[in-house]
Amino acid sequence: MTTGRPTATAPEPAQPGHVLLKAGREHGWQVALTRLHALAGAETILVGPAGHAVLCPQASRTAVRLRVGTTFLARDRAREQALPVPVTGVVALRVGTRPAAADPYPWATVLAGLRLGLSQGLLDRAVAHLGRRSTGGQPLLRHQALQVAVADLVIEHLEIGCELDSAEGLDPAAAADLHRRITRADRSLLHLFGAHGYELDGPAATGYVSELLADAYGDARSEAVPA
Fold first, then answer.
1. Which helix or strand (DSSP H or E) is residue 29 part of?
2. Which of 8, 120, 131, 198 makes the best surface tag, with the fewest CB within 10 Å?
3. Residues 188, 163: Cα–Cα separation, whole Å
4. For the chain, how far is it from start to end, CA to CA, in angstroms?
5. Per-residue pLDDT reduced to its tens digit, 121-152
């Protein structure tokens, strides 16, 4: 017998890119990185198209297999090479093997969501930083030039987010363009921190890790962003 009351339905699971965006914005790159590799599988390291991986030290210690394209391989630490990284708490590896074929999973789109979340988190921190500082007796956020800079970055983030929302999986050219835009936004917003924005134990660490992820998991043929 029906009662006329609407039937409750389970909410649709959030898209992975949205989950990683939220994690990156609210918790930073360590949490987002951990969740990125968890998408690849339990105790698994996600390997990029050029045979590189970026992960947290805990995952580096405990992972037992690699996801290389669509293939899962047992981890062979003897073939791995740790690459120098100037940021504490992140590990970069060259694993000695590359995907034989492209992975159809939309990693580029998911990664763009993660990086956008990190960029939004950086902007949140920059606005808080500017709100705590003043010059001439006025908070820095009252200065028109800084207000315009912040507004431009908010608009850029919104536009990138809209593009991600409109596509389940971006084609390589569109994904490369979004990643270049995120990199440019990060480099611009680091200026808002002043000299502090370029300290690798500060905001610059987030920008560095974000670009490292783009290098490791993006299309190696994509055009670099000018410094």
1. helix 29-40
2. 8
3. 20
4. 67
5. 999 999 999 888 877 677 788 888 899 999 99
